[in-house]
Design a protein that fits this description.
Elements lengths: L10 E2 L1 H10 L8 H8 L2 E4 L6 E4 L1 E3 L9 E2 L3 E5 L10 E7 L6 E3 L3 E4 L1 E4 H6 L9 H12 L1
Antiparallel strand pairs: 1-5, 2-3, 4-6, 6-7, 7-8, 9-10
Length: 144
Amino acid sequence: MKHNITMESVATTSAEYSEFSETHKRVNMEPESTKIEKDRGKTFECSFCGLAERYDYKGSKPPFARTVTYLEECYIMKDPFSLPNRGEILVLGSDCGVCTKPVCLGCSLFFIKRFCQACAQQKMSSLPVQLHAKIKALKKKDVN
């Protein structure tokens, strides 16, 4: 099965996720209901821009949006502007795959794993040339 690689956080269908899931099954054996209660009311804060927001779930398969599966563990909140029980969500960010700092989607990029601004800059020579402009744009945004 061939996977397309993108720069942003990607959701996938259950069928596409099965191959990825098999290799990562033992990561979190905690029951979902316990995990939701544990995460509820915690705050996500971006290490770069300081965005701070309450999140409802941290993981790749939010139980309140059952048709969505992410390729990374994300900080997810229920969309406060949607009708109740619609399963609409907002992804706030994720942890950097290199330094593990929490980082919002605006201050990072996704290529196989999430990279914060600093780690993307540091690893730029090993990332595809097509991403270099995006990495430089992240750096400029931090300066302003």
